[in-house]
Amino acid sequence: MNRSILLTATMAIALGGAVHAKELSLQNAFPKTLLLVGPSADYFSDLVKSGTNGEIEFRHYGQGELSPPTEIVDNVGSGAIDAGWSYGAFSAAKVPVANLFASIPYGPDAPKYLAWIYGGGGLELWREAYAPLNVVPMPCTVTLAESGGWYNKPIDSPEDFKGLKMRFSGIGGKILAKLGVSSQAIPGSEIYTSMETGRLDASEYSFPEIDALLGFEKIAKYYYFPGWHQRAGFVELTINKDVWDGWTDDQRNVIDMACKATILEFYSRHSTRQAAAMKKFEAAGVEIRQFSPETLAAIETAAHEVYAEESAKDPLFKKVMESYRAFSEDYDYYQDRNSLN
Predict the structure, then answer these.
(1) Which of 129-151 are b and which e, b meaning 16 or more Cβ less than 10 Å from the residue's Cβ?
(2) Which among 5, 8, 203, 261 could bridge 167 via Cys, Cβ 3.0 to 4.6 Å?
(3) Hey, CA dihedral for 271, 99, 152, 210, is it positive or negative?
(4) What is the pLDDT of residue 146?
(5) Sequence-ordered list of residues with C-beta below 8 angstroms from that of 4, at least 6 positions apart, any chain
(6) pLDDT of residue 185
(7) How far apart, in Å, are the Cα atoms of 245 and each of 27, 134, 136?
(8) What does the alpha-carbon distance between residue 278 and residue 274 come to, in Å, rounded to a whole number?
(9) 57 to each of 20, 50, 254, 262, 340, how far by Cα in Å?
(10) Helix (H) or strand (E) holding 87
């Protein structure tokens, strides 16, 4: 049996008869049609509706329909909208530690990230961080490892970053600033024109399948790996705390199970599609390269400097970073001994 059907059937049996409620708003920070982050919100919503026999039903709104991306969490907390489908870095102006629940530069891949969230105390810290905003967060989609970015010149050493005008979002921008990059957090829709006109020399955006949608191979010569800044990332579901508290335990369990099913579905669905996009880039004349060990070492040093600075400013950032590092040490103790590399 299809795992989605099985999940839905199990949840529906557990909840019994339907009691139809009002439609809840779910605001996406991204376009509804954008690969992974759009369809996954619909997939999640369908699971919840089926799993609760219609007791909980979300209406999915695309980017900007009810709220700008950077104001989604505020609007969810105030009750202006019921739920958000977003990215932690958009909330970092109010909650700096939110960056660590979006991605952790030089941090975990998807299995390790999920292990920390669900088995290492990460989710509890995430909810502690967001509690003052009156929202309940959780991961509801995990993204693939991103590339290290598109460049109009080779990056052969750390010195090649100096003076570079680059689109970079989240905490990764602060890290590259240590190497002399002028980081600009511009919307994805502006990247192509900005690189074409010389406003930008380089840009990171996403993993290859999504990068292919923006046509970067037409305006950039070099495509670098690894994506040190985001080996995995979370699309976060945020729910108004009063809405969350008004549900039964069974209903909250449906939300939790639906998110976990969405994570598995979309991670497995997109993991098989990246090679085709990369081969398309190569056919267009793009050089796919890897950063040198010297360059990666310099970026890692800069990352640790930024983490130390952020921890000194914010006790909660320090607490979350210490939690992840302690978990990582134990996780790697086992994983390293099972590695074939």
Answers:
(1) bbeebbbbbbbbbbbbbbbbbbb
(2) 203
(3) positive
(4) 95
(5) 43, 47, 261, 265
(6) 80
(7) 20, 11, 10
(8) 6
(9) 9, 9, 12, 16, 46
(10) strand 83-87
Residue pLDDT, tens place only, 232-254? 999 999 999 999 999 999 999 99
**How many residues does this entry show for the chain?**
341
CA quadruple 332, 335, 340, 341: dihedral, nearest 10: -20
The stretch 15-20 carries a mean pLDDT of: 44
- What are the C-alpha distances in Å from 340 to residues 94, 115, 335, 336? 42, 21, 10, 9
How many other β-carbons are positioned within 10 Å of the β-carbon of residue 115?
Answer: 16
- pLDDT value at 151 more than 70: yes
Residue 340: CB atoms within 10 Å: 3
Burial class (CB in 10 A: 0-12, 13-18, 19+), 329: exposed
| Cβ proximity of 228 and 148 under 8 Å | yes
**CA gap 79, 222 in Å, rounded:** 45
**To 10 degrees, what angle do helices 122-130 and 315-335 make?**
170
Which residues touch 240 (CB under 8 Å, ≥6 apart)? 76, 77, 79, 81, 82, 83, 134, 135, 136
pLDDT of residue 186: 83
Lowest-confidence region among 21-25, 36-40, 72-76, 335-339: 21-25
Do 233 and 175 contact (CB within 8 A), yes or no? no
Characterize the bridge pairing of strands 222-225 and 149-151.
antiparallel
Q: Report the candidate in 274, 303, 273 with the shortest Cα–Cα distance to residue 105.
A: 303
Residues 6+ apart with CB under 8 A from 280: 212, 217
Cα separation, 52 vs 335, whole angstroms: 38
Estimate to the nearest angstrom the gap between the alpha carbon of 34 and the chain centroid: 14
**HEC per residue, 26-38:** EEECCCCCCCCCC
What is the distance between the terminal CA atoms of the chain, rounded to a whole angstrom?
36
Residue with structure tokens 């497995």? Answer: 268
Contact 51, 11 (CB under 8 A): yes
